[in-house]
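Subject: for your reference before the review

Hello V.,

The reviewers asked for a structural picture of the protein, and I figured it would be easier to keep everything in one thread rather than splitting it across files. Below is the amino acid sequence we used in the manuscript, unchanged from the supplementary table.
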Amino acid sequence: MRIYRKLLVFFGKFKIKCKYTDWLVYFYTDSARKGGGQEMGKRFEGRTAFVTGGSRGIGKAIVKKFAEEGANVAFIDLNEEALSGTSAELNDSGFSIYSKMADVTDKEQVENAVRETVETFGSVDILVNNAGVIRDNLFFKMTDSDWQTVMDVHLKGSFIAARAVQKYMVERNYGRIINISSTSALGNRGQANYSAAKAGLQGFTKTLAIELGKYGITANSVAPGFIETEMTRETASRIGISFEELINVSLKQIPVGRSGKPEDIAHAAAFFADEQSSFVNGQVLYVSGGPKN
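And here is what came back from the structure prediction:
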């Protein structure tokens, strides 16, 4: 449509008759209708996305993004109150959803949720492994439980969900797997467990890309920087400062001069999930307002 507007200006300058601009309007709308373009907001129509940890923060933004762009969306979460609230909100907006309480570390619960999703919508085409927890502490204070909980949710949970969906994707010779990593994968004080798990997700992503690519399935990872979510609020609490103070400190290190929002990550996930991103595979995209090594 940008080209269309430029051409209108061009024709207007030379006072060319209206029939030409009428033709342009017809050409662009007819082209979109016949597949020459894609109706904005409907690129995932006919697709089904399955999102773990989809009730709050980044997960909720991803769920809403896919729903708004035409996808059927299934999401699971352990937070019953948040799950209920997000489900009601999406239902009220008229979106096609499936939601269920499930623990990503429980193989049976995840496999049942995926199976019910396929029974409800006919397929599962997109997986976003977003479920996560933090148990931050300095390394010498970190307990076995702190370590294992983070590993289980981020790594085991992503493994279980990816294994559950891949058989359906292989049958259809199509799939998009998106794992939510973090800039903490590069190392972050007080997050030995979280950093290791998020770095592990990147290796997991690249391996899935190698193994599943021949079946029309791509696997990519989004690595958020500082994003304003409930999780970063918990970080502020852990280090003993207000959330506003944490935002201000973080802004000094972000070249674009603003903190990230969950919607920023949703946009990146949607890029990887797009049918037209079929040659983008095994990549890690840092969404942090500036370059990362």
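For the response letter, the relevant points are probably these. The longest strand covers residues 217-224. The first helix runs from residue 2 to 13.

Happy to draft the paragraph if you're swamped.

O.
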